[in-house]
Amino acid sequence: MPARLLLPSHASQGRKRGLPGRRRRARAPAGEHFSMAELVARTGVRPATVRHYLRLGLLPPPIRVARNRFLYDRRHEQALHLVRLLRERRHLPLSDIGRILPQLVKLADEPAFRTEMWDEVVEAQLNAKEDPGRSPAARLLRAGMAAFSRRGFAEVSVDDVCRSAKLAKGSFYRHYRSKEDLFFATAMAAAAEASRSFSAEVGVGLSEEEAGLALGRALSPHLPLMLDLLALAAQHRPGHARVARAAFSDLRRVVRAHLLSPAEGADQRVLGAALATSIRSLVTEPDQAPSLLRAGLGS
């Protein structure tokens, strides 16, 4: 049988002749697709945050249909809901979410997947994909941050943290003097992560209102831990007020760097507005996630 001749396309012929080739506009594959504005309306996630998650690889690449026009689909919507819930309910950093998100998205589509299995799957994925090179101190810090955020300082013991971190109790005291010492470290780590999330989402030249809303979103995953710190400081527990001042001073310094006109006291007003926004969202904003995810993450 004679070999088939592969004829060059019109575009390649044009290039060979020195003529401009025709560019065909990409067509979106079958299925429901929507613009950035529609994705924001569906999920409540700001465009800057969506683009940040795309850069981190948390979301699949969008479909490019024109030079500055992209389309999104159900995968992006579902992933954004999952990221939001994992940050707000499980208080996970984006690095951990990035490691477990692909498997969680697959499992959510399985017909046999039951919502009551969700927490077990999250823990299994985190434990299975734990970086073996991560130091014991870092493992204790992550375990402590999750435990204090979910249950509060008073309800967490050193044994609880060690079991979660899969470390012997003797290892704990090689890195932290006490449960309070670990709690202080988790509060500072939470403030640092909120600062990074805030800086990644916004640019410079913000108004106080814009900065307050963005900082509220950045603080939201760590709100239980930070409120616990403030409550203990108000009770005059030793050391808590000092750590609270240090943690919130770092946040205020980051805010000042992004304000359009950092007038005197502006950073304090922004921080107050951010805390108020985060607290208000707990009691007034309906959860926009699908019922499967709400039930599975313990709403």
- What's the alpha carbon Rg, rounded to whole Å? 24 Å
Query: For the largest beta sheet, what order do the strands appear in spatially?
Result: 1-2
Q: How many beta-strand elements?
A: 2
Given helix and strand content, the structural type is mainly alpha
Q: Which architecture of the domain at 32-129 per CATH? A: Orthogonal Bundle
Largest sheet: 2 strands, antiparallel
Can you give the helix content as a percent range? 55-70%
Query: Which quaternary structure do these chains form?
Result: single chain
Number of helical segments?
15
* Beta-strand residue percentage: under 5%
In short:
The chain has 299 residues and is mainly alpha-helical. It is built from 15 helices and two strands.
Describe the structure.
The protein is mainly alpha-helical and 299 residues long. It has a domain at 32-129: Multidrug-efflux Transporter Regulator, Chain: A, Domain 2 (Orthogonal Bundle), CATH 1.10.1660.10. It has a two-stranded antiparallel sheet. The radius of gyration is 24 Å and the shape is globular. The N and C termini lie far apart (66 Å). Helix 5 (94-108) crosses helix 6, helix 10 (179-201) crosses helix 11 (208-219) and helix 10 (179-201) runs parallel beside helix 13 (240-258). It has helices spanning 10-16, 36-43, 47-56, 74-89, 94-108, 118-128, 136-151, 158-165, 169-175, 179-201, 208-219, 223-234, 240-258, 266-284, 291-296, and strands at residues 63-66, 69-71. Helices cover 63% and strands 2% of the residues. It contains 15 helices and two strands. Strand 1 (63-66) and strand 2 form a beta hairpin.
